[in-house]
Amino acid sequence: MQISVRESILHAENLFSSHRIENARLEAELLAMYVLGVRRAELYVMMDEPLTKAEDFWCLERRRISNEPSAYITGHREFYGINFHVDPRALIPRPESELLVEKALEFASRFTTNNKKCLIADIGTGSGAIAISLAVNLYNAIVYAVDISEDALEVALHNCRELDVLDRVRVLYGDLLNPLPVSVDIIVANLPYIKDSDVKDLSPEIRFFEPSDALVGGSDGLDQVRRLLTQSAEILCPGGLLAFEIGEGQEDIAKTLAHEQFPEAQVDSVLDLGGIPRVVVVTT
Predict the structure, then answer these.
(1) Beta partners for residue 267, in sequence order
(2) DSSP secondary structure string for all residues of 202-236
(3) Which residue of 149, 181, 241, 244 has the lowest C-beta tally within 10 Å?
(4) Is 77 left (phi over 0), alpha (psi -120 to 50) or beta?
């Protein structure tokens, strides 16, 4: 007798819970949807049907309890309402980084009234999620997607092609702002900000599967932020916006560093859904 979709999901949920995987039910449903090639609404309709491709589902269960992230297993992650391809060459996009998109879109709205092209740089673009989300929502923008990882840029290029934004996103290889051909109106950046001493405390999903070069930011986690701020003072247009992501406990020093480079600017922080200061916003 074949096991049903419902029973398979319940088994996976219990297995994931026993391995201390968060959101076990959601994780189980994601794998089931991937194996069956259906959306969540379709999944709920077929709950009492036999699970086809059961062996495939059990194989994915084993990969997940080995701490491989579900986004890498399925090759997809939703970000800002858009479905992105992801794989171990780039970080998995996270909901907290959507704050960067929101602040950039809010600032860029002023460009819709004067017919001026808005020039944006997404530094440390990884999979291209931030750059592409901006391009999808801003038809009057050119977005430069920059990364020092050629592997990550291959992922970003794939997503640009799949989402048909190559006319608005320029993928550039290089270190921080160095590859930019022009000054820009907006800079957004999700750079490495994990302290060296905190790496050991990261979850196994992050520590063993995601690219460490995109995570670790020095003794206080802000080595790359310092460099970004110094370079931004040279290339950010007057009246521009700089927004960068930070980790818990980094707000005060990050804002101090921003004030040192932009003494006349307004420097604010934005809280994530957990109430943690997650993004520093510099308005020049």
Answers:
(1) 282
(2) S-HHHHHHS-GGGTB--SSS-HHHHHHHHHHHHHE
(3) 181
(4) beta
